[in-house]
Specification:
This protein is mainly β. 9% of the residues lie in helices and 31% in strands. β3 and β4 (77-88) form a beta hairpin.
C-alpha cells in the first residue's frame, strides 16, 4: 500500500500539523518492496510518503500502525494507520473497490480497498464526579492540555501541595513523561 505524500500533507494539515520530515523523505524502495514486487504502473517513488506491506493471506481487515511522535514535545502522540480491506463481492454486491482480484469460479471476485488515517492522542483535562455508589462520571471538559488549577471549591484535608515544597510537582498535563513511565 502506497500513500502519496500530498495526501499525508493534507491529513496532517487537518490537525494544523506540518508533515513530519520522516514522511517527507523519498521512499526507500528496498524496504517498501518485497522479493520481485514492483511499484504500480504510473506511481513515482518520489511522490510516495509512506508504504505498508500486507500479506496475501486472505485476512479481510489488516492494519499497520506507525508512531510518528511518542509525546516527547508534550502535545500528545501522533500515529499513522494504514488499513487494508479484502472483501468478496458477494458480501457487498453494490460495493465499489479501488482494485479487484481475478474472477472466482462462482463469478464473484475479491475487492480491495485501503485507507490511511492520522491519529492524535492529546492530553485533555476533564472534570469527573466520583460517587461512592456508582462509577465515576465525566461532567465537563476543562480544556486541552489545560493547567490543573485549584478553583477554591475542593474539599481538602491538609495543606495544598506547592512546587516550592515539591519540585517534582507538575500542574500542567502533557505527554513529556510518557517514555520513562
Amino acid at each position: 500500500m502506497f500513500t502519496p505524500r500530498e495526501n499525508l500533507r493534507e491529513l496532517f494539515a487537518t490537525f494544523n500539523l506540518t508533515l513530519p520530515e520522516s514522511l517527507a523523505a523519498p521512499l526507500n524502495t528496498s524496504t517498501a518492496l518485497f522479493g520481485n514486487d514492483t511499484l504500480p504502473a504510473g506511481l513515482a517513488a518520489d511522490s510516495v510518503g509512506l508504504s505498508a506491506r500486507f500479506w496475501d493471506n486472505g485476512v479481510a481487515h489488516s492494519s499497520f500502525s506507525r508512531p510518528i511522535s511518542l509525546g516527547q514535545e508534550g502535545a500528545g502522540f501522533v500515529t499513522v494507520e494504514n488499513i487494508f480491506i479484502r472483501l468478496n463481492s458477494t458480501f457487498a454486491p453494490n460495493g465499489t473497490f479501488g482494485a479487484q482480484g481475478t474472477r472466482l469460479p462462482d463469478g464473484s471476485y475479491v475487492g480491495y480497498d485501503a485507507a490511511t488515517c492520522v491519529e492524535l492522542f492529546e492530553p485533555w483535562v476533564v472534570e469527573v464526579y466520583n460517587s461512592s455508589v456508582s462509577t465515576p462520571v465525566m461532567t465537563r471538559i476543562v480544556g486541552k492540555a489545560a493547567e490543573i488549577m485549584d478553583l477554591g471549591k475542593e474539599k481538602r484535608r491538609g495543606n495544598p501541595l506547592t512546587v516550592e515544597e515539591h519540585p517534582q510537582l507538575m500542574r500542567v498535563l502533557n505527554s513529556t513523561g510518557y517514555l520513562p513511565a
